[in-house]
Amino acid sequence: MQHKRQEIINVLKQRGNASVDELSKELGITTVTVRHHLDVLRSEGLVSEPAVRHRSSSGRPQHIFSLTPKAEELFPRNYDGLAQVLLDEVKSRLDTREVNVIFEGVVHRLLADAPRPSPDEPIEQRLDRAINFLNEKGYVAHWERRPDGFFVQTRNCPFEALAGKNPELCSMDLILLTSLMGITLQRVCHMPDGDNSCAYMVKEVAVETR
Q1: pLDDT tens sequence across 96-105
Q2: How many CA atoms lie within 13 A of 119 on its CB side?
Q3: How many alpha carbons lie under 13 Å from residue 96 in its C-beta half-sphere?
Q4: pLDDT tens-digit readout, 48-61
Q5: Among 6, 36, 58, 150, fewest CB within 10 Å belongs to which?
Q6: Per-residue pLDDT tens digits for 61-104
Q7: Which carries the bigger pLDDT value, residue 130 or residue 116?
Q8: Which CATH class is domain 3-72?
Q9: What are the φ/ψ torsions at residue 23 (nearest 5 degrees)?
């Protein structure tokens, strides 16, 4: 991002809102330049439409600008760090069986809004539905037919920063896929092991004998 626009975003983050005059004084640039940068930031959805600020003394009302929710995403977040601390705390207080019960509960919550397969539903329809659900959750998934069965691949792990220290998350993914499809899958690639994706196979025999 252009340097002055980043500075405008930083000032609006610190202040909450600011007028053109205030931004001009803060950044040491002309009001014309400030307006130009604000127009660009507004077109990108990062700065809101101006609101009116009424002065406490006499004078014309000022127009003030603030950041949009989209702009807030530009600032660092430490969700992964917080999640890891929470997981460490849970594991320090509970035994393995209780931890697994918690992760199974997480799977059930993730599946709450997922359509479930019917017993006589074709495998291709199950795969399509499972892939759509996974992509809504950020997995970047697809499936393909292979000579020995069906290959399911996920290119993105939403929990990548946590999976290395928390294998329960990978087990959770496997349970999630099995529940989505109603068929047992076998993991054949694993990103925490150095593979470029996590991938699963549904053997032809598993489909025929379901």
Answers
A1: 999 999 999 9
A2: 1
A3: 3
A4: 999 998 766 666 77
A5: 58
A6: 789 999 999 998 888 888 899 999 999 999 999 999 999 999 99
A7: 130
A8: mainly alpha
A9: -65, -40
CB 66 within 8 A of CB 8: no
Residue 130: how many CB atoms within 10 A of its CB?
25
Domain ranges, ordered by start, for the chain? 3-72, 79-208
Residue recorded with tokens 């980043």: 6
0.90 surpassed by pTM: no
Q: How far apart are CA 51 and CA 54, in angstroms?
A: 10
CA distance 136 to 110: 11
Nearest to 66 by CA among 53, 54, 48, 40: 48
Q: Find the helix packing angle between 20-27 and 3-15, rounded to 10°.
A: 120
CATH code assigned to 79-208: 3.30.1380
| Contact yes or no for 168/100 (Cβ under 8 A) | yes
